[in-house]
Records
---
Amino acid sequence: VDNLIVLGIETSCDDTAAAVVRGNGEILSQVVSTQADLLVQYGGVAPKMAEEAHSRAIDWVTQAALDKANLTAKDLSAVAVTIGPGLSLCLRGFYILSGPGPWLCSSDFFVGVCKGREIARSFQLPIIGVHHMEAHTLVARLTDRDLQFPFMALLISGGHNLLILAHGLGHYIQLGTTIDDAIGEAYDKTAKWLGLDMRRSSGPAIEDLAREGDPDSIRFKSMSSPLMDFKCDCVRFLHLVAKGPVEVYVGPMENWKFTAISQLLDAEIPLSLASSHERSSRADIAASFQRVAVLHLEERCERAIEWALKMEPSIKCFVVSGGVASNQYVRARLDQIAKNKGLQLVCPPPSLCTDNGVMVAWTGIEHFQMGRFDTPPPADEPEDTV
Ligand code: KG4
Ligand code: ZN
């Protein structure tokens, strides 16, 4: 196991990332190229631009990951690459990685998958398709080597909000998801709306600004979480879970920005104050937004943990991961929730919460050890065209 060396490649959103990780969890290198300039220019992630930026960065990012690890591709045991999320937490992409090229996949993953296939083909290495959200989850088992299944996890990122019960490798029960925006997107929209500098990722910008503000200064239309009145008992919850994604309302919503924040502007903050770019008033908005957004998460997590513990009393840990989990306020609040419920919070360090290649490499290692990998694409196959 210790001799395993896996390269992980991640290009599913706006970061081009690669890392080399050893089977024992030792991180040999980690390289991330962000598309901060594009974010400023376009005010968000523009898929076509993101793909072009990935194409420009992918070669040097993977090479830098190998160089920093003092290795060449010949030394690798396998290549792992993000191929999803698809609609569910299964790993459907597995079997098609080695099929005849060019491999068809959503353009979001195309660049990374092509690079992964190219390396696997050239050096005849096994290739492992990795689900992005599973990678966010399992990286907690790299940072906390004692973390055993089953455990609960909350995954909070720019595109997803998921509450899951992790039973085993590749075996996850979805307890809840957002019915509209993910919480990271709400942070991003609020940052944009407040005119914060997008060159700093907007989540951290809100987090910083919120430290200066008074979280109780602004009354949102709904001071409690949007589904607070939606009290579901266990049976109802189960029933709802079976129905899939509409059951649990995790994460703040579009209309917090469009109704709550904008109405509050009209009603409670003198418009002149907000538009004067007065830093303190923007800090109050950031702090109040963050408080309500996270309050909502807390309440949903509490309920989901209670439910999960009834089903699976052996759960000891509550994993919180994904970009938003790098937020210190989020971590502190959810730590309290976990403690109240008798669970231990497991939260990877911030650099492993946001998108990275380490989580992909590590998830590849976990699957590889279980014999779940794909054979290399045929060496004489024509190259994929990016
Ligand atoms: O997991 P991630 O890096 O990419 C996706 O899979 O989406 O998450 C990115 C999201 C962005 O919405 C970003 O604003 C948010 O995570 N984020 C934060 C913080 N750092 C990143 N949100 C709040 N506070 C932070 N410190
Ligand atoms: Zn992510």
---
Amino acid sequence: GEASLEGFDHYMLKEIYEQPEALRNAMRGRLDDENATAVFGGLNLTPQQLRTVERIILTGCGTSWHSALVGEYLIEDLARIPVNVEYASELRYRNPPIENNTLVFGITQSGETADTLAALRETKRKGHRALAVCNVVGSSIAQAADGGVYLHAGPEIGVASTKAFTSQCCVLAMLALYFGRLRHLSFESGKSIIEDLRQLPNAVQQALTCNEQVRDVAKKYQNASTVLYLGRQYNFPTALEGALKLKEISYIHAEGYPAAEMKHGPIALVDEETPSVFIIPRGTTYDKVMSNMEEVKARGGPVIALASEDDPQVRAVADDVIAVPQVTEFLQPIVNVVPLQLLSYHIALLRGCDVDKPRNLAKSVTVE
Ligand code: AGP
């Protein structure tokens, strides 16, 4: 068939493990060392047209909306183009004023999500160019868009999206590099971004080795009724995605929040029975996340920390530490989401849930 389990118990687990390869496929032929940029065959817009883009709108649903949020950080950081992220289901009816020279990207694994398709059609109707970042070749959204980038992640069967998310983030990083190099980004910076991208599949491979340990953590927390996921900057969307994975397949209530936003309300949820997953790799907001983590600890909340390898400071505070390889900040969601995917997988299994076909959900949502 199109895809088989190849020895894995579930498609979701297989697809989690396919991520290093999916990332290699997303990057294949797209990194241009000579010009220190990325290249795309299907944008159908000239470099000159792309240079005049003054705003980018990224739209999608669910996990694809989360990768759009990562894309916002990436494109604003690396290309310095203002970005708005929109839920496709809201964008399609909101009729916001959109300036000229705005480029819209629909982000979608299936290419069949009704709201994303409608949002793209609606923005096109208003005269804006709409591109797709899509996995399924020839899908409705791929056809409706003016052009776009395929993920080449291979079929994703598990209802909970995994490899599509990391591939989308990777494609958005390459797009950010490309847009940056059409503008202000130096040759040297372009080269170092390419080097970082090249190390990514190995870092994800290494992150997968935490599987056994994550299973132990899952055993410990499998009976929780609420789990909080907290991170900042690039790891804020990672927190949202971790929470969505847990909700979808284990039916445990979970919330993702920017860690500092906790004190404005959600910290009231913290008690001995409510674990918080802190995403706290080394980086610009490390100290800030550390104090957010200490606040939760001080209120008796169990803390699971997702940290960089060899971090005694985190170990001193957290109840459980899952270590991931340290990568440059803008690629951290791709590495850090891996243990979160595994955590939800193991918790769902322990609770006897059908991980590949969770209740009430369909792989692609073709109704609005
Ligand atoms: C992800 O785990 C979900 N099943 C869901 O949120 C999904 O990402 C969303 O429906 C969008 O799908 P698409 O990427 O195929 O457009």
---
Amino acid sequence: MERIFNFSAGPSMLPVEVLETAAREMLNWHGTGMGIIEMSHRSKPFDSMHNKTIADLKELLHIPDNFKILMMHGGGTLQFACVALNLLGDKTKANYLITGAWSEKAAQEGAKYCTVNTVATGKTSNFTTVPDPATWNVDPEGAYFHYCANETIHGLEFDLTEEMLAKIGDLPIVADMSSNFLSKTIDFTKHAVVYAGAQKNAGPAGVAFVIVREDLLGKSLKIIPSLMDWKTTADNNSLYNTPPCFPIYMCGLYFDYMRRNGGLEAFIEIARQKSTLLYNTFAESNGYYTNPVNENFRSKMNVPFLIKGGNEAIEKKFLNEAEKVGLSTLAGHRSVGGLRASIYNGMPMEGVVKLVEFMKAFQTNNP
Ligand code: PLP
């Protein structure tokens, strides 16, 4: 059977070369006579793979030496709690900007450990825009400022502007980049912590990457489980217990692939081209396809859209017909409906071209 184009919001497509390498190496990794997932995580071969994965990520994202790169269990969600448990110190409050479902979830989890100050919320706009920084209410007594750089469900992505940074002041800035990790450069002079689950742009689910400025380590609350403690993780090079060996290995293959294919900069350009093609198709459809998000904040990774303003019968027909031609998993998140094309790094340009051609033909056939 031919491979299809999978537009899922995650887990998502991986490059064929990465999958083929993994399949080939599964029985015998680099002449060791066994697969990497059968190997002790304390062994030399495993260690070399583990350290190369970290080194390649550092190179790809140009991560400065004063940041630690951690690979942790529990996906992006466990980091919602880790952020609070590692950063609160003797503070009792933290700042959360709410721009969609994921930042909302992060704040709800944070609220188990501290008083959450909602800096601003985009809820009144149905999360189609980032609240104007002039309206932000940042509490300088909070331990940190948390935001989600790409709202996977609402398709809203943004960078912190100078005006936003002025509002945040000296607070450590924490970014959830689960769904736009490795699709853009990260300014580490502005961020204190960046975290991301792997299963969109980095590999399979089961590992989360945490990139944390060294001086923030060692402030965790006493009650923190050891496995959630960033310092314990850093001190043990992410090998405090048996790590998620398979996802780490797969991410390592993906990072190596990215390095050999033009590095981050090449993937940024492809993401720009793919998302432009899709958004242009909406613009040229005379309102047949629409994306509700403010043009300044449209995501390059997750592109939600409606047909005829949200005609469910036609959208259902679209999904059925798309599935038949190998354009899969285009339904919107159950909480917002409509359609959504997630176009992470693993989605080739070819897939987006095929989608756009299908969309145009569908519009002609279903006016
Ligand atoms: N943050 C964002 C922006 C996400 O999109 C997701 C999952 O889709 C998560 C956090 C949660 O990640 P995980 O499923 O790895 O816990």
